[in-house]
């Protein structure tokens, strides 16, 4: 179980979430610059329940794939 959350995986997850945060913040700043503060609200970030659910499912799928690859690697060492 500890192999799933190794340093490499934790680093990659951190980088992914930082990239997503950077993307949404820069998108919001760009929308402010183009449209002005009166037309841009926090809902302009486009982070919805569906988006959050898609992110959660993709992370669960990634963990499942990694667990599967660890399982097959352990079979090779038998």
Strand and helix map with partners:
Elements: H1 7-35, H2 49-76
Summarize this structure briefly.
The protein is mainly α. It contains two helices and no strands. It is elongated.
Brief descriptors of the model:
elongated, single chain, 78 residues, mainly alpha
Distance between the termini: 19 Å
Structural class determined from secondary elements:
mainly alpha
Order of helices and strands: HH
Assembly context of the chains: single chain
Helix content: over 70%
- In the predicted model, the low-confidence regions spanning at least 5 consecutive residues are none
What does this protein look like?
Keywords: Membrane, Transmembrane, Transmembrane helix. The chain crosses the membrane at residues 16-34. By secondary structure, the protein is mostly helical. The chain has one domain (7-76). It is built from 2 helices and no strands. The protein starts with 6 loop residues before the first helix and ends with a helix. The mean pLDDT is 79.
